[in-house]
Amino acid sequence: MDSFAFWYHGKILNQFSSPSKNRAQCATISRLLTKAEESCPDKRNDVSATMNFNLWSECGWPGSPMLDIGFRIKNLKQAETLYFFLPLPIVETEKTACIEDLGCKFKETELVDAVFNESFATTIASNTKIIDVKRTDGSDSFKIYQLDIEHDIKLESFADGTVISIATKTIIPDQSDNENDTDYYFRFRIKNKSLPFLIHEYASSSKVAQSMFNTTYMIDFRYHNIRSLDKTLIERFSKNGNHIVPVDSLHFLLMTKAYVDVGSGDFKSVRKIENNVWKNYVDKDDPKDLVAYHYVHKPKKEDKFISSSEFFAKFRVENSLLWQYVLFTILLGASGSLIGSIAFEVLKAWLK
After folding, report:
1. Which residues contact 182 (CB under 8 A, 6 or more apart)?
2. Segment 157-194, tens digit of pLDDT
3. Between the chain's N and C termini, which has fewer beta carbons within 10 Å?
4. In the chain, what is the straight-line distance between the N-terminal and C-terminal CA atoms, in Å?
5. Cα angle for residues 114, 99, 115 (degrees, 5° grid)
């Protein structure tokens, strides 16, 4: 299973009592409401999301690549629990070592502007994990929630991956009547793990000499690719009360050093990232000379959401091991000398 998946469990049944004698009635009401919503799609007020993925690879830092995952959820009050499938096994004992909250990084307005490519102002109230974000022209606003990895999320091993669940009751109080409590942004980082489902090393048997000096990688990104998901997982997010999170746009950024040769890929734009803005975000001493390659997937004009997304790209990195160059030079010289000696002996024998 090499694809991400994202779904939620709705709050419809929470409006009714749930003793055993009323379960059948609640289920009937739920089916009727779902049928009514499907017949009037324009009047639905469902959960939807904007997805962000940032892959930090070959950035000149030691250790594994890092993957940042962010989603801006609209109408979060309609969801009881968010479920995100990560095609990478992470056990509960690894949770705090391999998953890091990034919401706390957005205390700086400059970072908010850089990530969302708009001009925003931020407000942080005391004793809360919420950062209020408002566009300077007042046309848009949302909340960034700082996840407590230990307590706000749960991990469940599933096949070769992990289901990450986030209960909304810890974020939005049930008694809240604030209409602004509907639009939230979450962002976390997967680190200290290799990402074999996403980055594949490519070796060509026909180009052995080239492989000595360069390593080629392929990025294979898949979001809600049904062919790449376990059938039991598909059954799970298709059960009554569960809904796939509709996505209005998906953004994937490859962050890598400027000297990395990035080849094929449907990138919309390429830009050098600001060293002073991203330094604290990545917690690295040297984020300079990094380039962001931006891929974006939006629905067609006749559609409101995208159902799935796939993205492929290649990049090549020069190997910096000096001994390979020395060995290649020695072998080249030795083979040239051998070929010359053989040619001389053949020519001498022919002249006789």
Report:
1. 74, 75, 76, 77
2. 998 899 999 999 888 865 555 555 689 999 999 999 99
3. C
4. 69
5. 5
